[in-house]
Design a protein that fits this description.
Length: about 240
């Protein structure tokens, strides 16, 4: 493990100061104990990879991410609740700007709203400025895959749960992650009937099916009897 870590540091050309921060994270206990709330369930996952238990504050978002990290061979290590890292940025006028407070506020807001504080720390530069600009093709392809294979299924996963897994894959693949707003907007733009049928079955989707005022050879079949074709139920 030490040799792999050293190779990783050398490949990414991490500075000596950065290495010290990482070493502190690796050698420290979790900075706090997580707690559950009215909208999320917390717990601990026994990690064989890390040989310790990993805390999670959301069984719908953070726990699935832990599963992926645990079984991803490209991930050497992962930690929960690392020590705080104070970051200072310098503005164009030369003044130093402390951003830790803002990051913490964004994290807590996302934790309460989506059940995953990490979402609040994501950069949304790709959707700023020219609002007509489309997301990169790689982002759209990954988003389409998650909607089809993870959201539009009979398991009926919540949007924020699927989005958390989507963000993780984007980060691992070096692809810009879509904003949560863009993700939900894409879902809502899809055909309601097909989406409902995939998630809840044909009976639940029936009320969303298109209505035909007249029957032609190209009209989709609706039942097998004349009463069914007319949209009536036999007594």
């Amino acid at each position: 493990m030490k040799e792999q870590f050293e190779q990783w540091v050398a490949r990414l050309q991490i500075s000596e100061a950065g290495q010290k921060i990482i070493e502190k994270v690796r050698s420290s206990e979790p900075s706090r104990r997580v707690g559950g709330g009215s909208k999320n369930v917390s717990g601990r996952y026994p990690s064989r990879k890390m040989e310790v238990t990993i805390q999670f504050e959301s069984h719908r978002v953070e726990l699935p991410i832990i599963y992926q990290l645990e079984h991803n061979q490209d991930v050497l290590e992962f930690y929960d609740q690392p020590p705080q890292i104070k970051l200072d940025y310098q503005a164009t006028n030369g003044r130093r700007l402390g951003v830790l407070h803002n990051w913490k506020a964004k994290y807590l807001t996302a934790q309460q709203k989506y059940g995953c504080g990490y979402i609040g720390l994501l950069s949304h530069r790709s959707v700023k400025g020219n609002r007509q600009r489309k997301l990169p093709e790689d982002t759209l392809a990954i988003m389409e895959k998650f909607i089809l294979e993870d959201y539009e299924t009979i398991k009926q996963k919540r949007m924020r749960e699927v989005y958390g897994a989507l963000v993780l894959v984007c980060e691992q693949s070096g692809v810009i992650a879509p904003s949560y707003k863009a993700f939900t907007k894409e879902i809502k733009h899809r055909p309601v009937y097909e989406q409902t049928k995939k998630r809840k079955g044909r009976r639940a989707a029936y009320k969303h099916e298109s209505f035909y005022w007249e029957l032609t050879k190209t009209t989709p079949r609706h039942g097998v009897r004349e009463a069914h074709a007319a949209g009536l139920s036999p007594l």
